[in-house]
């Protein structure tokens, strides 16, 4: 995720507790989605969609934080 910000991500994960929390939550959701998508999809559709939306919102938040920090 965001290879152009790799160094900044590493730094923020150490310096910014909120960024680290969001980053870890995004990764956790990614793992959950991978697990859910390998199971019977028909009865998990709503749960998968909800998690995908949450993951996308987290990614947007992280990207905004990265852009802001990179500009300073």
In brief:
With 72 residues, this protein is an all-alpha fold.
Description:
Keywords: Coiled coil. The chain is mainly α and 72 residues long. The protein has one domain. The protein is 82% helix and 0% strand. The model has no long low-confidence stretch (mean pLDDT 92).
Which key phrases capture this entry?
mainly alpha, coiled coil, 72 residues, DUF465_sf, elongated, DUF465, DUF465 domain-containing protein, 3 helices
**Low-confidence parts lasting 5 or more residues at pLDDT below 50?**
none
Return Rg in Å: 14 Å
- Helix tally equals 3
Instruction: Give the % helix.
Output: over 70%
Amount of beta strand:
under 5%
Quickly give the structural class. mainly alpha
Order of helices and strands: HHH
**Number of DSSP strands?**
0
Biggest sheet layout: none
What kind of assembly state do the chains in view correspond to?
single chain
Report mean pLDDT, rounded to a whole number.
Answer: 92
| Number of separate domains | 1
**How far is the N terminus from the C terminus?**
21 Å
Shape: elongated
